[in-house]
Amino acid sequence: GRPRRKRHHEGNAQGREANEENILADELLPLLCPGSHHFISSTFANVDTLKAKEHAPTLRIHPDDAQTRHIRSGQRVRISNERGECELVADVTEDVRPGMLATTTVWWPSYSPDHHNVNWTTSDRLADFSGGSTFYTNLVKVEAIM
Question: Is the alpha carbon torsion for 75, 117, 52, 95 positive or negative?
Fold first, then answer.
């Protein structure tokens, strides 16, 4: 027969139950951070021609989420959580799903609007499964900067 998957003793691979009510109550949204098209991680992030192609550190946000937060394209926004914050330029687009945020990695802090980048919001903690990275689980609050 086929081997059965073992269920984690607490219900999921992270070892804790997800609490969607708290996530929604705190207005936190998951932030996806794929690599940029023109940088390799942070390598080449100081090359002027490549920076020009990337334009600016940008946060992609769905129109529904932008509307409830009074955010418009081109506006500076702040993402934050208990670990830190950074400022980005909003790109209101249907290219991301409602309830999700996306930005590319990683601008050098010296080229970011507030000299912070998205790494300020990620955890240094290692995952309980094989000691991998936990930066793929990053919940942040997003707000317009007036």
Answer: negative
